[in-house]
């Protein structure tokens, strides 16, 4: 059975919105505040996560975000190469438009039911990047097995948070924490169900 891993870049106050500053919210681009040394270590962590994955899961908007930045065609490097080869599952109620990233399956219908089926079909890690609304839905249905939070030392103050209104409190167990370069911390949690 597959293990669903939510992998997020997150500010110290829980914001996941606009880490690259491309959404014109005025508070983004906290990703650019880390140093080059840290960015190199961060890229290693991301590559290793992708190498350990059997599939990617994302919402339509996150999928289109990756496409618009050349991940399907022009992005170079081992991480981009690995993401191109992985099977990708995109939750979308509408048809995907534009270029295809390759190995893409659109999941439609009842999202929790479709993701539960996906977890039964895949043996290994299914990594979910971004996709805040999708994370919330899957969290509410106890389908998330692990949270990997790359924490940035910045208080954004406003913006979409990873968790807002949940139906119930969930206890988590800290599995691992470690510094990433000079600026970041990676925290890995598992829900206690």
Automatic annotation (TrEMBL):
A Pfam family reported for this protein in Swiss-Prot or TrEMBL:
RibD_C
Q: Report any one BP term from Gene Ontology.
A: riboflavin biosynthetic process
Q: Domain Bacterial bifunctional deaminase-reductase C-terminal spans what residues? A: 3-185
Listed InterPro entries? DHFR-like_dom_sf, RibDG_C, Riboflavin_Biosynth_HTPR
What Gene Ontology molecular-function terms does this entry list?
A: 5-amino-6-(5-phosphoribosylamino)uracil reductase activity
Tell me the protein's name. Answer: Deaminase
Instruction: Please name the source species.
Output: Kribbella jiaozuonensis
